[in-house]
Design brief:
Shape: globular
Structural class: mainly beta
Strand content: 35-45%
Order of helices and strands: HEEEEEEEEEEEEEEEEEEEEEEEEEEEE
Radius of gyration: 21 Å
Largest sheet: 10 strands, mixed
Number of strands: 28
Distance between the termini: 35 Å
Length: 428
């Protein structure tokens, strides 16, 4: 089956699956009160996969056989070959997902074999030899990064020059912020403030859609000095019931681009309950509302170049969100584990974005890659590159709490923590 016909079939299957999925899957929804993003998944030994739920709050996760697969706040880890069932309990309701763990040489299509339930998550037809495997065997799920002995711990590097090698290839520097001044350059950046986004006629979800605890201020939590920009999250009483303050800066309406290489040199706070991120969202088609030609999130996509849980100082996540045709996004994620350093040290996080693939880099080493046959938008099933073929803008933020780390909050002793950015550069 061709990819276009396959995707068209997936769109039709989504409607059928909505009516039949209670009866047709090992991960059937047992109550309308809770639903999981996958009904079944197949993983290789050692792989991880994050399940999402359509509810927020306290979810009790469990595995029927922890010798096969474990689960921690929705993150499933394949331990050994076999089968297990992951359960998510919420307010007396339960949803389940069947997990099959296979040896590396037995793997088929990562992420399950029910494309009708999560369109885009399993696009390639396993029976078609011309369709590549979205698992990409050359992109391990847990790459270990080298320690660069020459990487300075402090200070600002030399002014950027057009590179002649590296992840950016022969691309030229087209946009950057070196944070050399004493305040944020408002010709390049804008602040998103409060507890939800307001743009044109659109109002974003409350608590930024993730049950986050912070109130974003307009500059009070950003400092530019000595060649770096700091976003500071701190404990304090804020409007709208927020108990922390922080900042979120964006280039929306000021700078966006399609394809190229982007990187930033960053060090992060290793504090439980803090959630720093360097990421990208699609530039709206007009200032009337936040949608673009593919509609709103998740049909319009999201690129997470780097995000981290402060309580896990040895790892960051690289993630791509795209369309599921339902309440949640379909996404692919990979964790990068540092060898001999932590998120509190300076590291360079990069993304190479092309028509054919998106690849994540840490300190110049490729960490994760997804080819364009994997992602898609249900708004444009006949577009091979959707939704990642339009302009995206840049974001930096430091959130507190939220669903990403299961609602964990900073310890009572916490007063403040910093996300520090040395520079951000775009090459095309």
């Amino acid at each position: 089956m061709s990819k276009l016909r396959h995707r068209a079939a997936l769109a039709a299957l989504t409607v059928l699956a909505a009516a039949l999925f209670v009866f047709t899957s090992a991960c059937s929804l047992l109550s309308p009160d809770i639903e999981l993003s996958q009904k079944s998944i197949e993983l290789i030994e050692g792989d991880t996969f994050r399940l999402a739920a359509n509810v927020s709050g306290s979810i009790a996760w469990s595995s029927s056989d922890e010798s096969v697969a474990t689960v921690d706040d929705g993150l499933v880890t394949a331990v050994a070959v076999g089968e297990a069932t992951i359960s998510a309990e919420y307010n007396g309701a339960t949803a389940k997902c069947g997990v099959t763990v296979v040896a590396d040489d037995e793997a088929t299509v990562p992420g399950g074999d029910n494309p009708g339930d999560t369109p885009g998550g399993n696009d390639p037809d396993p029976g078609d030899p011309e369709e590549p495997d979205p698992g990409d065997p050359e992109a391990p799920d847990v790459p270990v990064g080298p320690v660069d002995p020459d990487l300075p711990d402090e200070g600002d590097p030399d002014e950027p020059e057009t590179p002649d090698g590296g992840p950016w290839g022969d691309r030229e520097l087209v946009w950057s912020d070196e944070f050399d001044g004493t305040s944020l350059d408002m010709a390049k950046w804008a602040y998103q403030t409060g507890r939800q986004d307001h743009y044109g006629s659109s109002t974003g979800p409350w608590a930024w859609g993730n049950n986050e605890l912070q109130y974003y201020t307009e500059g009070d939590n950003v400092t530019v000095s000595d060649g770096t920009m700091k976003i500071t999250a701190q404990r304090e009483a804020m409007p709208d019931g927020a108990t922390f303050s922080s900042s979120r800066i964006v280039t929306r309406d000021k700078y966006s681009f399609t394809y190229g290489y982007i990187e930033a040199r960053i060090k992060l706070p290793a504090v439980e309950g803090l959630w720093p991120a360097f990421w990208m969202l699609p530039q709206p088609s007009s200032t009337a509302n936040s949608n673009n030609e593919y509609g709103g999130w998740p049909n319009s996509g999201e690129i997470d170049i780097m995000e981290a849980r402060g309580r896990e100082p040895d790892r960051i996540d690289n993630t791509l969100h795209y369309s599921s045709g339902s309440w949640s996004s379909t996404y692919r994620t990979s964790k990068y584990i540092f060898d001999g350093s932590t998120i509190s040290d300076w590291h360079t996080y990069g993304l190479e974005w092309t028509e054919d693939y998106i690849a994540w880099y840490v300190d110049g080493t490729e960490a994760f890659r997804l080819t364009s046959d994997v992602y898609w938008s249900s708004s444009a099933p006949d577009d091979d590159n959707a939704p990642f073929d339009v302009d995206f803008y840049i974001l930096f933020n430091l959130a507190v709490g939220g669903n990403y780390d299961g609602g964990r909050v900073p310890p009572e002793s916490f007063t403040s923590g910093d996300m520090e950015v040395d520079y951000v550069r775009v090459y095309q």
